[in-house]
Design goal:
The protein is α/β, with parallel strands linked by helices. It contains 7 helices and 6 strands; from the N terminus they run E-H-E-H-E-H-E-H-H-E-E-H-H. The termini are far apart. The structure holds adenosine-5'-triphosphate (ATP) and nicotinate mononucleotide. The site of adenosine-5'-triphosphate has 19 residues, from strand 1, helix 1, strand 4, helix 4 and helix 6.
């Protein structure tokens, strides 16, 4: 199959601790306004940049992502990293997905904050050579100047959203509502399980 015939699938890697509408709007924007047929949310049990941080167990984070996208056929979850060594280096996951799905062409999706840290990732040069990357602007993060020199990188102009999982966890710790910051099904699941509850 030639590369022009392959289905293009966007991969949004993240801790999703928890998933929020920033992730969902990013994914939907990419599926609607680019050549991607699908976006997969790849839940990372352990980001190399979050070692030592308290994270909800990965199965619970995955369940929240599944609840968030259940009614959207263009969005999917992937738990491929659950079986891979930790911390989860994205290059290893991309190799594994390439082995499992040779029929797809994968594109990396990320927010501007992750692009700013990309130079410090494992095998950055190989990732940049082998994969197209679509970047969604994130308030507070300038696009690095080197980004302009990468022919495989595309900055997708999209409405910026100043929403983070950190803010959601802090709101829950403080006993504040997270209504509209996450889908209703996610809010209900968080409440029912008292994730990040104040006491
Ligand atoms: N509001 C947003 N705008 C653009 N990109 C975002 C936004 N929120 C998350 N992303 C992107 O989604 C991916 C996964 O992010 P992650 O799961 O770390 O969420 P987060 O909100 O940044 O979490 P935390 O606040 O816990 O660090 C990253 O590529 C990140 O850049
Ligand atoms: O491969 C790396 O070196 C690497 C370094 C930092 C982050 N990542 C991945 O980037 C994704 C978002 O990470 P984070 O820390 O913003 O939640 C997550 O899937 C991490 O595994 C990957």
């Amino acid at each position: 199959m030639s590369s022009s015939e392959q289905k293009r699938v966007g991969l949004l890697f993240g801790s999703f601790n928890p998933i929020h509408i920033g992730h969902l709007i990013l994914a939907q924007h990419m599926v609607t306004h680019t050549d991607l047929a699908e976006v997969w949310f790849v839940v990372s049990p352990q980001s190399p940049y979050k070692v030592g941080q308290q994270l909800l167990p990965e199965q619970d984070r995955l369940a929240l992502v599944e609840a968030a996208i259940a009614d959207n056929p263009q969005l999917r979850t992937s738990s491929v990293e659950f079986q891979l060594p930790r911390p989860n280096y994205t290059v290893a996951t991309l190799d594994e997905l390439g082995r499992q799905y040779p029929q797809y062409q994968f594109v990396l999706l990320m927010g501007g904050d992750n692009l700013a840290g990309l130079a410090g990732w494992k095998d950055t040069a190989r990732i940049q050579q082998e994969f197209d990357m679509y970047v969604y602007p994130r308030p507070g993060y300038e696009m690095p100047v080197e980004a302009a020199n990468n022919p495989r990188l595309r900055i997708v102009e999209a409405p910026p959203l100043d929403i983070s999982a950190t803010f959601i966890r802090e709101s829950l710790h403080a006993g504040k509502s997270i209504r509209y910051l996450v889908p209703e099904a996610v809010e209900q699941q968080i409440e029912a399980n008292r994730y990040w509850a104040s006491q």
